[in-house]
Description:
The chain has a single domain (39-255), classed as Collagenase (Catalytic Domain), CATH 3.40.390.10. Helix content is 29%, strand content 14%. It contains 8 helices and 5 strands, in the order αβαβαβββααααα. The longest helix has 16 residues, at 178-193. It is globular and about 40 Å long.
Amino acid sequence: MRRFKKLLIFFVSIAFVFSCSTEDPNDPANGGVNRTANLKTLGASATDLLSDVNFTSMNIEIVYVEGNKPAEEAISNFSNFLKQRTYKPDGIRITQRSVSSSGQAPFDIDEIVEIEKKERTAYNAGDEIAVWIYFADGSSEKDSNDKFVLGSAFRNTSMVIYEKTIKEFSSRNGGTSRATIEAATLNHEFGHLFGLVDLGTEPVSDHEDSENQGHCITDGCLMKASIEFGSGVVDVINGTGIPELDQLCIDDLQSVGGK
Length: 259
C-alpha cells in the first residue's frame, strides 16, 4: 500500500456552474462546502480525530457499492473500537448508503480519489469531523500472487476497503468470517488515520517495522502489516478474534489526545 504521505496533489471537488465566475465554489460564504480540511495528508488530523479539543463529534460516511455492504457485526465492532480510543462527547455517527459500481476495478488509488470526489457528501462542519469510507467492488491493482491489499487509508479522513477481496479471501479460509476480517481491516486502517505508525503521529518509542513502513513490529498488534495485506491476516487473527492495539501504539495515541 502506497499512500499520499508526502503528496499535496489532493483534488478540489467539482462544482457545476453555468457562467464564468472568479468565486471559489468551496467557500462557505458563497454557499459551498469548504472541503480543504478533509484533503490533507494521511495522519494530519490524528489529534482532531482522537480528541475533543476542536471536534466533539464524528460523522463517518460509509459508501458501499451495491452488493458490498459491510456486515452489521463488523460495523458494531468498528464503532466500539472508535469509542474506546477517542474522546467524542457528542457521539460518533455512522451512516451507510449504496452507490452504483464505477466499473473501474482493479483500482489504483487515483481512481479511488476520483470516486470520492463524486460520491463523498460528508465534510467537517462546525465541531463535527467527517470521515469517508468506500467499500469497493474490486481489488487493488497492487495485488500479487502472494500478497493482496484489504484496505488503504490514503489521506487524513479517507479510506477504501476492498470488499470484493475480503469476500474472496474469507470464502477460501472458512475459519475466519467476513465480518471479522472487515472489522480488523476497518480498525487497522483507522489506526493509520490516527497517524500510526509514524504516519503523522510521532512514536513515543521505536516500534515501527523497518520492512513495512507505517506498521508496528509487535506480534499480535492491530497495526501489524499482515492485517492490511490479506496473505497473513488469518495468522494474526488466529481464532482469537480481532487484534487489539498493543501498548506501544496506545501510548502513541495518548500522546496526541487519544484514550
